[in-house]
Amino acid sequence: MIISWFSLVIWSCIGIFGCSSKQDSYTTWETYQGDPGSNQYSSLGQINKGNVDQLEIVWVYQTGDSLGQQSQIQCNPIIVDDILYATSPTIKLIALQASTGELLWEFDPALDFSPHVNRGVTYWESGNDKRILFTAGSLLFSIDAITGKPVVSFGTAGVTSLKAGLGPRAADLFVISTSPGVIYKDLYIIGTRVSENADAAPGYIRAFNARTGAVEWVFHTIPKPGEYGYETWPEDAYGKIGGANAWAGISLDVDRGVVYAPTGSASFDFWGGNRTGSNLFANCIIAIDAETGQRLWHYQTVHHDLWDRDLPAPPNLVTVTHNGVKVDAVAQVTKSGYVFLLDRDTGKPLFPIEERPVKKSDLKGEEAWPTQPFPVKPPPFARQNFSEEEITDISPVANEYVKTVWATTRTGEQFIPPSTEGTMYFPGFDGGAEWGGASYDSNTGILYVNANEMPWIQHMVELELNMGDQSKPKTIKDAGEKVYKANCAICHGQNRQGNATGTYPPLLELEKILSKENSKIIIEKGKGFMPSFDQFSEDKKNALLTYLYDESINNSNQVKQLDKNWIETMTKELQEFAIPYSHTGYNRFFDQEGYPAVKPPWGTLNAIDLNKGEILWQAPLGEFEELTKRGIEKTGTENYGGPVATAGGLIFIAASKDEHIRAFDKDTGTELWKHKLPAGGYATPSVFAVNGQQYIVIACGGGKMGTAPGDYYVAFSLSENQFDGE
């Protein structure tokens, strides 16, 4: 819908306050996660402990483009004056009247790509030039914030490639961005999501010109010869290894002109025999000069990562009292359940961090790093050891069921290397902390962060790499199986069985649910969490499809009937990104009823005093009503999406599997209010005011953890007779 002429006039006459003054006071939500420092805090207090139970839904907007079970919305909307900007399940950009939910305009990128998750958009302005920058597929768009039309002076007719500046190797590889970038002057600074496998593109951080779309600088997270950190890799790693990407987003100190980028692991995630060394700048907090792209300092939170311990959220830029002195700091939450608190100017820890010995790997060719960093304070906000004492006790049957499986795995401490025997990850692959981030109240020095307490089990699977005559593919289907084992089995399972939550569906009897032609489109374009594999040759795609559709082996399917060069060509392709291991997938450890295998709580909300390095309280987040009825107290649930603390003494958070949004007393952790949502609110809420009235809006996209999908944005506020205005 095109915005009306009257609305255009009103909107343009209102004007926009300077970003820094409003955002510094935390009264607006013009930036992803509330402010450039990623603090997810609002100084609005109209909604408070005394009236939060009177909150009601004031509007609901339904995008109308849900994609079914794979559909999600993880977007944290931004609000500029009274216009809300967000994205839909199919990555349409929408502008809504923030107080009513009325659609003002919608931009559909209408590209030949498969939709993926998107966590937000970015606003830029210069005088009357007002733009929304957002990504869809491997492209970066610049859209006029008033009209919803592409800005033709940006890139090519309003769009440029996210692969720009990554080098020729990335041209055919999977590159998208799930988290928005930050604006510094006329620079749009952003990271990317790339493959988790050996075919990953490099995760370089780049600054695009917000006016033209040109790349202004590139920071090589896998250093090239002569660059700092090059010696922490094999000498040719920069040309072969990918990942080390800032997929979780970036924080900005506007006054210092410094961005703080959290990076993930190098790829392949779980075996690093081809990347010996500590692997800078993977798993690092990197302070980068926003103007030039030059490294100022870094701190590595995991050396030579073998556990997919990406830094999962932008760091909070905080000010704490340390040894009686105010110190500007960086607080980085992690999947492992720790907070790294570092001086913002130097990167030096404010509390001790110990390098402790960890176990060696017994996988072939692997050289695990001998030590890993453990913060001494604050203590971890998630349990660290899935010992026998922590096995679920919700029933004797569950306890015995879990104990039998638990006894077959390697567990008991952090950083146990991946193994063919089976390794327990606790906290699991999704934390601890995750992409929802943490909220920080600068008035008290307290950080609020939600956590998952879900164990996951992984088994490594050795692959056959020596392609001698006996190992070369004999049939197309045989080649397809090798392609599947190396690229697809880590998500869909070694036997195509999928995973328990439905995030990665089974691929058995595929012909009954999806045509071969549509499967090929998904392979080429990706879908949801699945990356594109368009870099595969036609022969490789067809071989994979032959295997997936269990096509019978007949004369036409015999390699010997094909071009004699086919065997050698396919063998070369199979070895292009070859590594000696795959794994059985991302598997949560459940009991026989489908509940987490560990004792509750399974999801928590935590308050951490960063001045003292102490945990003040922990509260369960979410519940299973059927367990409550059985007399099992509130257990908490897995959760995705972050908290927002407010000056009203509250913390707002959705995130939980039970599809509620809640308000907690931020002083005590007591749950004060909850409301059932039309679908799971797996996103971080936005808090803002229009005409003196405070609102909370949450994206309700569902789809995670096996819950129903949705395509809603829901706004809450007090009725007019319950507030006096501000």
TrEMBL record:
Domain Cytochrome c positions: 475-552
EC code: 1.1.5.2
Keyword annotations of the record: Heme, Iron, Metal-binding, Oxidoreductase, Signal
Sample GO molecular function, one term: heme binding
Cofactor needs: pyrroloquinoline quinone
One Gene Ontology cellular component annotation held by this UniProt entry: membrane
Pfam family, one: PQQ
Keyword DNA-binding: no
The family this protein is said to belong to: Belongs to the bacterial PQQ dehydrogenase family.
Annotated protein name in UniProt: Glucose dehydrogenase, PQQ-dependent
Record organism: hydrothermal vent metagenome
Phylogenetic placement of the source organism: unclassified sequences, metagenomes, ecological metagenomes
